[in-house]
Amino acid sequence: xxxxxxxxxxxxxxxxxxxxxxxxxxxxxxxxxxxxxxxxxxxxxxxxxxxxxxxxxxxxxxxxxxxxxxxxxxxxxxxxxxxxxxxxxxxxxxxxxxxxxxxxxxxxxxxxxxxxxxxxxxxxxxxxxxxxxxxxxxxxxxxxxxxxxxxxxxxxxxxxxxxxxxxxxxxxxxxxxxxxxxxxxxxxxxxxxxxxxxxxxxxxxxxxxxxxxxxxxxxxxxxxxxxxxxxxxxxxxxxxxxxxxxxxxxxxxxxxxxxxxxxxxxxxxxxxxxxxxxxxxxxxxxxxxxxxxxxxxxxxxxxxxxxxxxxxxxxxxxxxxxxxxxxxxxxxxxxxxxxxxxxxxxxxxxxxxxxxxxxxxxxxxxxxxxxxxxxxxxxxxxxxxxxxxxxxxxxxxxxxxxxxxxxxxxxxxxxxxxxxxxxxxxxxxxxxxxxxxxxxxxxxxxxxxxxxxxxxx
Length: 457
Prior knowledge:
Elements: H1 3-9, H2 32-50, E1 52-58, E2 60-61, E3 73-74, H3 81-103, E4 108-116, H4 124-135, E5 139-150, H5 157-165, E6 170-176, H6 180-185, H7 192-205, E7 209-216, H8 223-236, E8 240-245, H9 268-284, E9 288-290, E10 294-296, H10 301-308, E11 312-314, E12 317-319, E13 326-329, E14 334-336, E15 340-344, H11 348-356, E16 362-367, H12 370-385, E17 387-389, H13 399-411, E18 415-418, E19 421-424, H14 432-437, H15 441-445
Parallel strand pairs: 1-4, 1-13, 2-3, 4-5, 5-6, 6-7, 7-8
Antiparallel strand pairs: 8-10, 9-10, 11-12, 14-15, 15-16, 17-19, 18-19
Helix pairs in contact: 2-3, 3-4, 3-11, 4-5, 5-7, 8-9
Protein backbone atom coordinates (compact mmCIF):
# COMPACT_ATOMS: atom_id res chain seq x y z
CA UNK A 1 0.00 0.00 0.00
CA UNK A 2 1.77 3.15 -1.12
CA UNK A 3 1.93 6.30 0.98
CA UNK A 4 0.22 8.49 -1.63
CA UNK A 5 -2.96 6.34 -1.53
CA UNK A 6 -3.04 6.50 2.25
CA UNK A 7 -2.60 10.27 2.23
CA UNK A 8 -5.30 10.59 -0.42
CA UNK A 9 -7.99 8.40 1.13
CA UNK A 10 -7.32 8.68 4.87
CA UNK A 11 -10.30 10.93 5.62
CA UNK A 12 -13.08 10.86 8.24
CA UNK A 13 -15.80 8.39 7.28
CA UNK A 14 -18.57 6.14 8.67
CA UNK A 15 -18.24 2.44 9.41
CA UNK A 16 -21.66 1.81 7.85
CA UNK A 17 -23.37 -0.39 10.37
CA UNK A 18 -26.42 1.44 9.00
CA UNK A 19 -27.52 3.72 6.21
CA UNK A 20 -28.28 6.51 6.79
CA UNK A 21 -25.60 6.75 9.46
CA UNK A 22 -26.70 8.15 12.81
CA UNK A 23 -25.43 11.76 12.32
CA UNK A 24 -27.62 12.07 9.21
CA UNK A 25 -30.86 10.73 10.65
CA UNK A 26 -33.82 13.02 10.03
CA UNK A 27 -34.92 13.22 13.65
CA UNK A 28 -37.49 15.94 12.94
CA UNK A 29 -39.56 13.55 10.82
CA UNK A 30 -39.33 10.75 13.39
CA UNK A 31 -41.88 9.92 16.09
CA UNK A 32 -42.53 7.07 18.48
CA UNK A 33 -45.81 6.31 16.72
CA UNK A 34 -44.14 6.03 13.31
CA UNK A 35 -41.48 3.79 14.83
CA UNK A 36 -44.09 1.45 16.33
CA UNK A 37 -45.97 1.32 13.01
CA UNK A 38 -42.76 0.28 11.24
CA UNK A 39 -42.12 -2.44 13.85
CA UNK A 40 -45.60 -3.90 13.29
CA UNK A 41 -45.17 -3.75 9.51
CA UNK A 42 -41.82 -5.53 9.62
CA UNK A 43 -43.08 -8.11 12.12
CA UNK A 44 -46.03 -8.95 9.88
CA UNK A 45 -43.80 -9.30 6.84
CA UNK A 46 -41.00 -11.34 8.34
CA UNK A 47 -41.69 -13.03 11.67
CA UNK A 48 -42.96 -16.37 10.39
CA UNK A 49 -40.39 -16.66 7.62
CA UNK A 50 -37.19 -15.68 9.40
CA UNK A 51 -37.95 -14.60 12.96
CA UNK A 52 -36.53 -11.54 14.69
CA UNK A 53 -33.22 -10.52 16.20
CA UNK A 54 -32.75 -9.13 19.69
CA UNK A 55 -29.80 -7.07 20.85
CA UNK A 56 -29.52 -6.51 24.61
CA UNK A 57 -27.20 -3.75 25.77
CA UNK A 58 -25.67 -4.47 29.19
CA UNK A 59 -23.74 -1.27 29.89
CA UNK A 60 -21.87 -1.81 33.14
CA UNK A 61 -18.08 -2.17 33.41
CA UNK A 62 -15.94 -2.28 36.52
CA UNK A 63 -13.28 -0.05 34.97
CA UNK A 64 -12.88 2.29 32.01
CA UNK A 65 -10.89 1.09 29.01
CA UNK A 66 -9.56 4.30 27.49
CA UNK A 67 -9.82 3.09 23.86
CA UNK A 68 -13.56 2.38 24.14
CA UNK A 69 -16.24 4.44 22.38
CA UNK A 70 -19.21 2.35 23.58
CA UNK A 71 -22.03 3.64 25.78
CA UNK A 72 -21.20 2.33 29.23
CA UNK A 73 -21.46 3.01 32.95
CA UNK A 74 -18.44 2.43 35.17
CA UNK A 75 -19.22 0.97 38.59
CA UNK A 76 -18.13 -1.78 40.95
CA UNK A 77 -21.56 -1.84 42.62
CA UNK A 78 -23.27 -5.02 41.42
CA UNK A 79 -26.47 -3.97 43.14
CA UNK A 80 -27.25 -2.18 39.85
CA UNK A 81 -27.80 -5.52 38.08
CA UNK A 82 -31.31 -6.41 39.24
CA UNK A 83 -33.05 -3.04 38.71
CA UNK A 84 -31.47 -2.68 35.29
CA UNK A 85 -32.55 -6.15 34.15
CA UNK A 86 -36.05 -5.52 35.48
CA UNK A 87 -36.21 -2.46 33.19
CA UNK A 88 -35.03 -4.52 30.22
CA UNK A 89 -37.78 -7.07 30.85
CA UNK A 90 -40.38 -4.30 31.17
CA UNK A 91 -39.21 -2.92 27.84
CA UNK A 92 -39.55 -6.39 26.29
CA UNK A 93 -43.09 -6.56 27.65
CA UNK A 94 -43.86 -3.22 26.01
CA UNK A 95 -42.77 -4.61 22.64
CA UNK A 96 -44.72 -7.82 23.26
CA UNK A 97 -47.85 -5.81 24.05
CA UNK A 98 -47.39 -3.90 20.80
CA UNK A 99 -46.82 -6.95 18.63
CA UNK A 100 -49.32 -9.31 20.19
CA UNK A 101 -52.08 -6.70 20.30
CA UNK A 102 -51.73 -6.13 16.57
CA UNK A 103 -51.08 -9.67 15.36
CA UNK A 104 -52.03 -12.10 18.11
CA UNK A 105 -48.73 -13.94 17.53
CA UNK A 106 -45.66 -14.38 19.67
CA UNK A 107 -42.31 -13.34 18.20
CA UNK A 108 -39.97 -16.04 16.97
CA UNK A 109 -36.39 -15.36 18.04
CA UNK A 110 -33.78 -16.22 15.42
CA UNK A 111 -30.82 -14.25 16.68
CA UNK A 112 -29.86 -12.80 20.07
CA UNK A 113 -26.71 -10.99 21.11
CA UNK A 114 -25.57 -9.69 24.49
CA UNK A 115 -23.32 -6.65 24.10
CA UNK A 116 -22.05 -3.83 26.22
CA UNK A 117 -20.47 -2.64 28.29
CA UNK A 118 -19.48 -5.93 29.78
CA UNK A 119 -22.23 -8.58 29.70
CA UNK A 120 -20.17 -10.79 32.02
CA UNK A 121 -20.30 -8.01 34.62
CA UNK A 122 -23.70 -9.57 35.39
CA UNK A 123 -23.84 -12.76 37.44
CA UNK A 124 -24.69 -16.04 35.68
CA UNK A 125 -27.83 -16.26 37.84
CA UNK A 126 -29.07 -12.84 36.72
CA UNK A 127 -28.31 -13.55 33.05
CA UNK A 128 -30.26 -16.79 33.36
CA UNK A 129 -33.27 -15.01 34.86
CA UNK A 130 -33.18 -12.38 32.12
CA UNK A 131 -32.99 -14.84 29.24
CA UNK A 132 -35.48 -17.35 30.62
CA UNK A 133 -37.97 -14.52 31.09
CA UNK A 134 -37.49 -13.37 27.49
CA UNK A 135 -37.72 -16.88 26.07
CA UNK A 136 -40.84 -17.68 28.11
CA UNK A 137 -42.87 -15.20 26.06
CA UNK A 138 -41.51 -16.09 22.61
CA UNK A 139 -40.86 -19.02 20.31
CA UNK A 140 -37.31 -20.00 19.42
CA UNK A 141 -36.41 -20.53 15.76
CA UNK A 142 -34.77 -23.68 14.52
CA UNK A 143 -30.99 -23.40 14.78
CA UNK A 144 -30.98 -20.02 16.55
CA UNK A 145 -27.83 -17.91 16.67
CA UNK A 146 -27.18 -16.73 20.22
CA UNK A 147 -23.91 -14.98 21.07
CA UNK A 148 -22.37 -12.81 23.75
CA UNK A 149 -19.34 -10.66 24.44
CA UNK A 150 -17.21 -11.62 27.43
CA UNK A 151 -14.34 -9.97 29.27
CA UNK A 152 -11.57 -12.56 29.79
CA UNK A 153 -10.83 -11.19 33.26
CA UNK A 154 -14.32 -11.79 34.67
CA UNK A 155 -15.91 -14.48 32.48
CA UNK A 156 -16.26 -17.58 34.63
CA UNK A 157 -16.85 -21.16 33.61
CA UNK A 158 -20.28 -20.78 35.18
CA UNK A 159 -21.04 -17.89 32.81
CA UNK A 160 -20.09 -20.02 29.84
CA UNK A 161 -22.00 -23.10 31.00
CA UNK A 162 -25.13 -21.14 31.94
CA UNK A 163 -25.31 -19.40 28.58
CA UNK A 164 -24.51 -22.61 26.70
CA UNK A 165 -27.39 -24.36 28.47
CA UNK A 166 -29.64 -21.51 27.29
CA UNK A 167 -28.71 -22.10 23.65
CA UNK A 168 -25.65 -19.88 23.15
CA UNK A 169 -23.06 -21.33 20.76
CA UNK A 170 -20.92 -18.31 19.91
CA UNK A 171 -18.84 -16.16 22.23
CA UNK A 172 -16.50 -13.26 21.63
CA UNK A 173 -13.68 -12.14 23.90
CA UNK A 174 -12.18 -8.65 23.80
CA UNK A 175 -8.41 -9.09 23.67
CA UNK A 176 -7.29 -5.84 21.96
CA UNK A 177 -3.54 -6.36 22.52
CA UNK A 178 -1.08 -8.32 24.67
CA UNK A 179 1.76 -5.79 24.89
CA UNK A 180 2.16 -4.46 28.48
CA UNK A 181 2.82 -0.85 27.41
CA UNK A 182 -0.24 -0.79 25.15
CA UNK A 183 -2.41 -2.44 27.81
CA UNK A 184 -1.35 0.14 30.38
CA UNK A 185 -2.11 3.02 28.02
CA UNK A 186 -5.64 1.75 27.31
CA UNK A 187 -6.21 0.68 30.94
CA UNK A 188 -6.89 -2.92 29.90
CA UNK A 189 -4.51 -5.12 31.87
CA UNK A 190 -5.31 -8.61 30.70
CA UNK A 191 -2.84 -11.51 30.88
CA UNK A 192 -2.71 -14.03 28.04
CA UNK A 193 -3.45 -16.77 30.58
CA UNK A 194 -6.91 -15.31 31.22
CA UNK A 195 -7.78 -15.38 27.52
CA UNK A 196 -6.35 -18.89 27.19
CA UNK A 197 -8.42 -20.12 30.11
CA UNK A 198 -11.80 -18.81 28.89
CA UNK A 199 -11.10 -19.96 25.32
CA UNK A 200 -10.34 -23.49 26.49
CA UNK A 201 -13.39 -23.53 28.76
CA UNK A 202 -15.64 -22.45 25.89
CA UNK A 203 -14.36 -25.25 23.68
CA UNK A 204 -14.61 -27.86 26.43
CA UNK A 205 -18.24 -26.86 27.04
CA UNK A 206 -19.09 -27.08 23.33
CA UNK A 207 -19.17 -23.58 21.81
CA UNK A 208 -18.85 -23.95 18.03
CA UNK A 209 -17.40 -20.50 17.38
CA UNK A 210 -14.99 -18.60 19.61
CA UNK A 211 -13.98 -15.13 18.45
CA UNK A 212 -11.26 -12.77 19.65
CA UNK A 213 -11.30 -9.01 19.07
CA UNK A 214 -7.97 -7.37 18.20
CA UNK A 215 -7.43 -3.65 17.63
CA UNK A 216 -4.66 -2.08 15.55
CA UNK A 217 -3.56 1.54 15.76
CA UNK A 218 -3.65 1.75 19.56
CA UNK A 219 -1.21 4.04 21.42
CA UNK A 220 2.43 2.92 21.19
CA UNK A 221 1.58 0.31 18.57
CA UNK A 222 4.44 -0.91 16.42
CA UNK A 223 4.48 -3.84 14.03
CA UNK A 224 6.63 -5.82 16.47
CA UNK A 225 3.96 -5.43 19.17
CA UNK A 226 1.14 -6.22 16.75
CA UNK A 227 2.93 -9.31 15.46
CA UNK A 228 3.49 -10.51 19.02
CA UNK A 229 -0.26 -10.17 19.74
CA UNK A 230 -1.28 -11.97 16.55
CA UNK A 231 1.12 -14.85 17.13
CA UNK A 232 -0.05 -15.22 20.75
CA UNK A 233 -3.65 -15.20 19.50
CA UNK A 234 -2.87 -17.90 16.96
CA UNK A 235 -1.67 -20.18 19.76
CA UNK A 236 -5.37 -20.39 20.67
CA UNK A 237 -6.64 -20.51 17.05
CA UNK A 238 -10.00 -18.74 17.55
CA UNK A 239 -12.58 -19.64 14.89
CA UNK A 240 -12.94 -16.02 13.85
CA UNK A 241 -11.20 -12.73 14.52
CA UNK A 242 -12.30 -9.13 14.48
CA UNK A 243 -9.31 -7.00 13.45
CA UNK A 244 -10.56 -3.50 14.13
CA UNK A 245 -9.00 -0.18 13.35
CA UNK A 246 -8.86 1.94 16.50
CA UNK A 247 -11.39 4.75 16.13
CA UNK A 248 -10.01 7.83 17.86
CA UNK A 249 -13.06 9.99 18.63
CA UNK A 250 -12.36 11.75 21.96
CA UNK A 251 -14.64 14.64 21.01
CA UNK A 252 -17.72 12.44 21.50
CA UNK A 253 -19.26 13.13 24.90
CA UNK A 254 -18.82 10.26 27.31
CA UNK A 255 -15.88 8.66 25.47
CA UNK A 256 -12.93 8.16 27.80
CA UNK A 257 -10.23 8.39 25.12
CA UNK A 258 -8.05 10.74 27.15
CA UNK A 259 -5.67 8.26 28.78
CA UNK A 260 -2.86 9.00 26.34
CA UNK A 261 -1.58 11.75 24.09
CA UNK A 262 -2.61 11.83 20.43
CA UNK A 263 1.09 11.87 19.56
CA UNK A 264 1.32 8.37 21.04
CA UNK A 265 -0.84 7.03 18.20
CA UNK A 266 0.74 5.61 15.05
CA UNK A 267 0.51 7.77 11.91
CA UNK A 268 -1.87 6.90 9.10
CA UNK A 269 0.93 5.21 7.15
CA UNK A 270 2.16 3.30 10.21
CA UNK A 271 -1.39 2.24 11.01
CA UNK A 272 -2.00 0.98 7.48
CA UNK A 273 1.20 -1.08 7.69
CA UNK A 274 -0.16 -2.65 10.87
CA UNK A 275 -3.26 -3.68 8.94
CA UNK A 276 -1.45 -4.86 5.81
CA UNK A 277 1.18 -6.84 7.72
CA UNK A 278 -1.44 -8.19 10.11
CA UNK A 279 -3.71 -9.28 7.27
CA UNK A 280 -0.81 -11.01 5.50
CA UNK A 281 0.18 -12.87 8.65
CA UNK A 282 -3.39 -13.92 9.42
CA UNK A 283 -3.84 -15.25 5.89
CA UNK A 284 -0.55 -17.14 6.10
CA UNK A 285 -1.88 -18.76 9.26
CA UNK A 286 -5.11 -19.91 7.60
CA UNK A 287 -7.57 -17.05 8.12
CA UNK A 288 -9.72 -15.64 5.33
CA UNK A 289 -10.79 -12.00 5.22
CA UNK A 290 -14.56 -11.60 5.45
CA UNK A 291 -16.13 -8.26 4.58
CA UNK A 292 -14.32 -5.49 6.43
CA UNK A 293 -12.37 -5.92 9.70
CA UNK A 294 -13.17 -9.63 10.06
CA UNK A 295 -11.31 -12.89 9.46
CA UNK A 296 -12.50 -16.47 9.88
CA UNK A 297 -11.32 -20.02 9.42
CA UNK A 298 -12.91 -21.90 6.52
CA UNK A 299 -15.19 -23.98 8.77
CA UNK A 300 -16.72 -20.98 10.56
CA UNK A 301 -20.25 -19.98 9.56
CA UNK A 302 -19.21 -16.34 9.03
CA UNK A 303 -16.94 -17.42 6.16
CA UNK A 304 -19.54 -19.88 4.92
CA UNK A 305 -22.15 -17.11 4.83
CA UNK A 306 -19.81 -14.99 2.72
CA UNK A 307 -19.43 -17.85 0.24
CA UNK A 308 -23.20 -18.42 0.07
CA UNK A 309 -23.99 -14.70 -0.16
CA UNK A 310 -26.12 -14.67 3.00
CA UNK A 311 -23.76 -12.52 5.08
CA UNK A 312 -25.40 -9.44 6.58
CA UNK A 313 -24.26 -6.28 8.41
CA UNK A 314 -26.22 -4.33 11.00
CA UNK A 315 -25.68 -2.45 14.25
CA UNK A 316 -24.26 -5.64 15.78
CA UNK A 317 -21.64 -5.87 13.00
CA UNK A 318 -21.37 -8.76 10.56
CA UNK A 319 -23.78 -11.66 10.94
CA UNK A 320 -24.08 -15.00 9.15
CA UNK A 321 -27.85 -14.56 8.91
CA UNK A 322 -30.33 -11.75 8.36
CA UNK A 323 -33.59 -10.82 10.00
CA UNK A 324 -35.69 -7.91 8.85
CA UNK A 325 -36.62 -6.83 12.40
CA UNK A 326 -34.02 -6.28 15.11
CA UNK A 327 -35.22 -5.04 18.49
CA UNK A 328 -32.64 -3.39 20.72
CA UNK A 329 -33.30 -3.60 24.44
CA UNK A 330 -31.50 -1.60 27.11
CA UNK A 331 -29.94 1.81 27.49
CA UNK A 332 -28.66 3.32 24.18
CA UNK A 333 -29.60 0.19 22.19
CA UNK A 334 -30.48 0.77 18.53
CA UNK A 335 -33.35 -1.07 16.84
CA UNK A 336 -33.86 -1.64 13.12
CA UNK A 337 -37.20 -2.47 11.51
CA UNK A 338 -35.64 -2.15 8.02
CA UNK A 339 -38.03 0.75 7.39
CA UNK A 340 -36.84 2.75 10.40
CA UNK A 341 -34.12 3.04 13.03
CA UNK A 342 -34.66 3.98 16.68
CA UNK A 343 -32.25 4.54 19.54
CA UNK A 344 -33.07 4.20 23.22
CA UNK A 345 -32.30 6.81 25.86
CA UNK A 346 -28.53 7.02 26.35
CA UNK A 347 -28.31 7.24 30.15
CA UNK A 348 -29.31 4.50 32.55
CA UNK A 349 -31.51 6.88 34.55
CA UNK A 350 -33.41 8.28 31.56
CA UNK A 351 -33.85 4.80 30.13
CA UNK A 352 -35.24 3.36 33.36
CA UNK A 353 -37.50 6.37 33.89
CA UNK A 354 -39.11 6.05 30.45
CA UNK A 355 -39.67 2.32 30.86
CA UNK A 356 -41.18 2.83 34.32
CA UNK A 357 -43.64 5.26 32.70
CA UNK A 358 -44.77 2.47 30.39
CA UNK A 359 -43.20 3.95 27.27
CA UNK A 360 -40.95 2.30 24.71
CA UNK A 361 -37.83 4.32 25.58
CA UNK A 362 -36.68 5.56 22.16
CA UNK A 363 -35.55 9.18 22.03
CA UNK A 364 -34.49 9.56 18.41
CA UNK A 365 -34.60 7.74 15.11
CA UNK A 366 -35.04 7.88 11.36
CA UNK A 367 -37.79 6.79 8.99
CA UNK A 368 -36.24 5.50 5.75
CA UNK A 369 -37.72 6.79 2.51
CA UNK A 370 -37.58 4.91 -0.81
CA UNK A 371 -34.27 6.53 -1.74
CA UNK A 372 -32.77 5.57 1.63
CA UNK A 373 -33.87 1.95 1.15
CA UNK A 374 -32.27 1.90 -2.29
CA UNK A 375 -28.95 3.36 -1.14
CA UNK A 376 -28.97 1.10 1.90
CA UNK A 377 -29.00 -1.95 -0.38
CA UNK A 378 -26.01 -0.66 -2.35
CA UNK A 379 -23.97 0.08 0.76
CA UNK A 380 -24.86 -3.29 2.28
CA UNK A 381 -23.76 -4.98 -0.94
CA UNK A 382 -20.43 -3.17 -0.82
CA UNK A 383 -19.83 -3.86 2.87
CA UNK A 384 -20.85 -7.53 2.67
CA UNK A 385 -20.04 -8.66 -0.88
CA UNK A 386 -17.62 -5.94 -2.03
CA UNK A 387 -19.74 -5.24 -5.12
CA UNK A 388 -23.05 -3.79 -6.18
CA UNK A 389 -25.03 -3.24 -9.37
CA UNK A 390 -27.94 -1.06 -10.47
CA UNK A 391 -30.60 -0.61 -13.12
CA UNK A 392 -33.29 2.01 -13.70
CA UNK A 393 -35.07 0.95 -10.52
CA UNK A 394 -32.01 0.99 -8.26
CA UNK A 395 -30.26 4.00 -9.77
CA UNK A 396 -30.28 7.35 -7.96
CA UNK A 397 -30.02 11.05 -8.91
CA UNK A 398 -26.34 11.52 -8.08
CA UNK A 399 -25.17 8.30 -9.78
CA UNK A 400 -23.00 10.28 -12.23
CA UNK A 401 -21.27 12.06 -9.33
CA UNK A 402 -20.66 8.74 -7.64
CA UNK A 403 -19.25 7.25 -10.83
CA UNK A 404 -16.95 10.25 -11.18
CA UNK A 405 -15.48 9.62 -7.74
CA UNK A 406 -15.33 5.89 -8.45
CA UNK A 407 -13.50 6.50 -11.75
CA UNK A 408 -10.67 8.06 -9.79
CA UNK A 409 -10.66 5.05 -7.48
CA UNK A 410 -10.60 2.79 -10.55
CA UNK A 411 -7.51 4.64 -11.80
CA UNK A 412 -5.94 3.92 -8.41
CA UNK A 413 -6.78 0.21 -8.72
CA UNK A 414 -9.31 0.16 -5.89
CA UNK A 415 -12.46 -0.73 -7.88
CA UNK A 416 -13.47 -2.21 -11.21
CA UNK A 417 -16.36 -0.43 -12.97
CA UNK A 418 -18.63 -2.16 -15.46
CA UNK A 419 -21.63 -0.68 -17.26
CA UNK A 420 -24.02 -0.92 -14.31
CA UNK A 421 -21.89 -2.32 -11.52
CA UNK A 422 -18.75 -1.88 -9.47
CA UNK A 423 -16.52 -4.36 -7.65
CA UNK A 424 -13.95 -3.59 -4.97
CA UNK A 425 -10.57 -5.12 -5.81
CA UNK A 426 -8.29 -6.92 -3.41
CA UNK A 427 -6.18 -3.78 -3.29
CA UNK A 428 -9.29 -1.75 -2.54
CA UNK A 429 -10.49 -3.79 0.45
CA UNK A 430 -8.68 -1.46 2.81
CA UNK A 431 -10.69 1.43 1.35
CA UNK A 432 -14.16 -0.16 1.48
CA UNK A 433 -15.47 2.67 3.65
CA UNK A 434 -14.27 5.21 1.09
CA UNK A 435 -16.02 3.35 -1.73
CA UNK A 436 -19.28 3.19 0.22
CA UNK A 437 -19.06 6.93 0.90
CA UNK A 438 -19.46 7.67 -2.83
CA UNK A 439 -23.02 6.31 -2.55
CA UNK A 440 -23.84 8.16 0.67
CA UNK A 441 -26.35 10.73 -0.57
CA UNK A 442 -27.27 11.95 2.92
CA UNK A 443 -23.65 12.85 3.64
CA UNK A 444 -23.08 14.37 0.16
CA UNK A 445 -26.01 16.72 0.59
CA UNK A 446 -25.27 17.62 4.21
CA UNK A 447 -21.51 17.70 4.52
CA UNK A 448 -20.62 18.02 8.22
CA UNK A 449 -18.95 21.25 9.25
CA UNK A 450 -17.09 19.56 12.09
CA UNK A 451 -15.38 16.20 12.35
CA UNK A 452 -17.84 13.51 13.44
CA UNK A 453 -16.27 10.27 12.20
CA UNK A 454 -13.03 8.43 12.81
CA UNK A 455 -10.46 8.26 9.99
CA UNK A 456 -11.07 5.56 7.38
CA UNK A 457 -7.51 4.26 7.69
